[in-house]
Structure prediction request, 282 residues.
Amino acid sequence: MRSSGRFLIAAAMVIFGLFSYYSLRQDNPVTGEAQHISLSPDEETALGLQAAPEMAEQMGGLHASAQVQDYVNRIGQAVVANSRAKNGPYRYQFHVLADDQTVNAFALPGGPIFITSALLAQLENEAQLAGVLGHEVGHVVGRHAAEHMAKGQLSQLLVGAAGVAASDQGGGGQGAAMIAALVANVTSLQYGRKDELEADALGIEFMGEAQYDPRAMIGVMDILERAGSGRGQAPSWLQSHPDPGNRRESIRQGIAEKFPNGVTAAQGTGDAQAFRAMQAQL
Prediction:
């Protein structure tokens, strides 16, 4: 194929991809943000519910203790019910994974949220747990997974266009596509870091509204930093997240902005006895 023909096809692919992406626009009812998303909230919820069992299996299964599962779900539901996260269309489920080695927590589209027993065992109080779960609720509310799916579709089209434009008989197109994919991955990581800071901001808001001391999230950063020190790699929760030191300052600023009158006496660390009883079952 002549180079002019290849470039015309590539240009058409780029134009189609960009038009498709930017024509997708939905207003987030909780954050007020205009987002480029192709899925409806109902489709997000269905996708998350379908993926949850397989995701749990891939991560080693759920923790066997009903007491642990009930406790964590109760704290997560309280964070949602007592904050403006309840105004969204999602159905939240909070699960503890049996994995006692990987420090991690994550959310699927539409509401399923997971925390590993490894991270749960290192938390120091109920407020820190509320902060971790609130952070993951922030990802759901922020529709970050759906945004990344739309960006991923655009990236695939752009990578394909780069391959077509640079294709030749010597296989040069494959190398060009690989370079384009690398650029796309770096771009996704940058968006991911932005999403994490937004999830932090939403998380401290939600936990504060649920009467937990939002300053507990600073302690979570300390735990994550300790978990990553002296090892070959950082905890899974940090691999695509900003450095805990940077997040501490962002969290402090967020607390000052969202709670200008200071943290109230009612915003405490939660039920210490129930928290210790839960951890004893891990």
Summary: The first strand starts at residue 26 and ends at 27. The first helix runs from residue 3 to 23. The beta strands are 26-27, 34-35, 93-97, 105-107, 112-116.
